[in-house]
Amino acid sequence: MLSRLSPKNYAVVGCRFGSTIASSEPTGPEMHTAVPGPKSKELTDRMSPLHNTASIRCFVDFEKSFGNYMISSLPLGYNHPDLVKAAASPKFLTSLVSRPALGSFPRTDFSEGLQEALTDVAPKGLKQVQTMLCGTSANENAIKQAFIWHMRQKRGDKPPDQLALDSCMKQQQPGTPHLSVLGFDGAFHGRSLCNLSVTRSKAIPKVDIPAFDWPIAKFPRYKYPLEKYKSYNDQQDKDCLADVEAKILEWNAKKHDVAALIVEPIQAEGGDFYGSPAFFQGLRDITKKHNIVFIVDEVQTGGGATGTGDMWAHSHWNLSTPPDMVTFSKKMLTGGYFYADHLRINESYRIYNTWVGDPTKLFLLQEVVKVIKRDGLLQKNIEVGKEFQKQLHQLQNSHPNKLSNARGLATFAAIDFATAEMRDKLLTDATNNGLHCGGCGPQSLRFRPSLVYEKKHIDLTFEILDKTIKNL
């Protein structure tokens, strides 16, 4: 994420001609102050009495941000001209000004939007989709839908009876069943009360919050380069799969049936930890064996940046049968999840809220999908990803005492520093040199560029990183 900071340091300087945003981004970062600069400090002081500012790094002038300057979870960068044009349309404006309650009163063109923005890029084998506002709400409701399906199967494919309806109001069985979700050590699925029980990447979001007694399984921790440690890594897969099955049997024996298993293709927040296709196929086999809903959390990995040629990282796995659910958000702009036909719920108000998403985000995603197809961005990402991985490994080779474990899929990547302190200093220094980047896990630097990230941006990225690391 390349930064171009103004003298007052809002954050980014782009190009504007009158009221029209220019169609080209800056040629490179141009820093005038350290981050945060005086203007950001002033705005933080102004905001602090009104709102928590502990996580704010700097304020950004989004009207002057363009392309990869600055960029994080957006698929086409900032102020992409096609999206700017689309946002000026009457359909977008009426969706924005008169936000429809999609749960009960959707727009007349809502089904068209679902088809063009989501169904046309759905994971293989999944066409049913439920929109939500964000990734957390997507995971939360996917888990709820898995529970509902599980209990319906236990009742012989029948809806809740009166005893279940009455007892749930007292939070008693059978209406309030003892069910669990299996998650993984190092996982991140959101910060809501339910999702914190399957989130185990860092302590600060979880501390002081009550949690469900749900099983925690091991996730592979590979050694790199993968080809050098094949035997060790294969054993990691076997040990972790054995642990998954053991945890399922343990919780089922406690009469807390494991109704769902939720897993990320890459444990992104936890430190960019990977599993092999064999590991994930093993999970699919176990979930089939035990009649468990298999949920793949692609909130961070979805959107086309992992070099699969489609929008989904789990396409790398070549599963024998598709996941039961795939959740999404971030680069997909809207939150939501795809699900298998057998999981469909026909009763009203069971998976529901007033908004169930935002039609403006769906409208923009329609345009994003058109641009991705028109400009061949998924194929370009594969080629750009090869160059990115090449330069990432070259950077590691240039600094062997400071860097290790270069890894990734296309431009979705990470590398480890020798210590957490070194990584954290790099984050500060690189930002002040014009590269806004982030950490994950104990001591990893992560990369999450958009689909408009090109060779020239790779060269800038690694030029800044190399210069910064030399001075650590």
From TrEMBL:
Its cofactor is pyridoxal 5'-phosphate. It comes from the Eukaryota. Residues 23-42 are annotated as: Disordered. It holds the Pfam family Aminotran_3. InterPro entries: Aminotrans_3, Aminotrans_3_PPA_site, PyrdxlP-dep_Trfase, PyrdxlP-dep_Trfase_major, PyrdxlP-dep_Trfase_small. CDD domains: OAT_like. GO terms for molecular function: 4-aminobutyrate:2-oxoglutarate transaminase activity; pyridoxal phosphate binding. One of its GO terms (biological process) is gamma-aminobutyric acid catabolic process. It catalyses: 4-aminobutanoate + 2-oxoglutarate = succinate semialdehyde + L-glutamate. GO terms for cellular component: mitochondrion. PROSITE patterns: AA_TRANSFER_CLASS_3 (PS00600). Gene3D superfamilies: Aspartate Aminotransferase, domain 1, Type I PLP-dependent aspartate aminotransferase-like (Major domain). Keywords: Aminotransferase, Pyridoxal phosphate, Transferase. Belongs to the class-III pyridoxal-phosphate-dependent aminotransferase family. This is Gamma-amino-N-butyrate transaminase. It comes from Mesorhabditis belari.
